[in-house]
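Bug #77: duplicate submission created two jobs. Keeping one. Sequence:
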Amino acid sequence: MTLKSRMKTETTKTNKFMQPLDPNIPGSPELQVGYGPEVINIYPFLNSLSKLKKVLFVTTSNRSPYVAKQGERAKSSQLADHLAYLLRQKGCDVEVIDASSLTIHNCLGCVSELHGNQCGAKNSKVKDEKKNPTGHLRCWASHDFEDDELWKIVNPLYESDAVVFFASQRWGSANAIYQKLIERLDWIENMHYSMGEPNTIAGKKAGFVLLGQNWRVQQTVEMQREVLEFYGFDVPEELYMGWQFTRDVEDETEESYKESPYTFEQSWNMQLFIPTLKESESHRDPMLYKVKDFSSFISRLHW
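Kept job's structure:
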C-alpha cells in the first residue's frame, strides 16, 4: 500500500460528533474533530471553561501584511474571539493574545547543549520584575534578548486558571508560530520533569484548537494534548477540538480552498468577518471576499 493510499484509508473513519448546537444537550466531554459541515459541539468546551475565573486564549496563525491591512484575520483567530465572546456572557474573564504580533525569538536548544541540559537553569531567570513578577520565567532566550516578548504570554498564563492555544495545520503539524512558542515554553516542563523542582503550572488547565484543510488534524490535536500533559498541565479532553475541511488528503484544488471559509461557518455556527476588496487593490480574486460589516462578525448565537 502506498503512503497516499494509507493516508486516504486513515481519513475514511466515521466521525461520531455530528450533533446539534444545543446548550441543553452539552454532549460528552471528549476530544472531537469535525470534517466539512459536521457541526462542532462547543458546549463541553464552554461549560468547562465557564467555571473558571480567568482564561487565556493564545492565537498563533497569521496573515500577510497586505491582506491584514484589508482587515482579514485567520479563521482560528476569529474563532478564538467568538468563543471568548460566549464565555464573557457567562462572566468569565477571557484575555486573547495574538502570538504572531509579538517578537518571540527562536528556542536556543539549551536542553541539549554538549555540556548538559541548561533549559530552565536557575541562572537563566529573567531579572526584570516587570517581565518576570512570579520569578518563574527562566529561559535563556528571554534572558539574552532584550526585545524578546515571551513574557507578554507567560505573565497572563500564570495569572490564569486555563490557557487554550489556537493554531492552523500546516503540512501535517501545527503552524510554525505555535511550534516556536511551545518550544520556548519548554523550561516550564524541564524545571520539574528534569530538574526535580515543583511544577509551577500544577492545576492549570490547557487546551488546543486546530483548524486545517485536508491532512492529519486529528493526529496533531491528540499529539499536542500529550505535549501539554508532559508540560504539567491538566488536559481535559473537552478542551481539545479540531476541524478539517475535507477527508480527501489529495484535494488541493483552488475551489476547495475557496469553499472552506463558508463550510467553516456552517460547522462552527459563526460568521467570519471577510472584508470586501476592490479588484484594483489586489491580484487576488475579489469573489473570494464576502461583503459584511464588522458587527456581523459576532455571531447571533447567544449561549
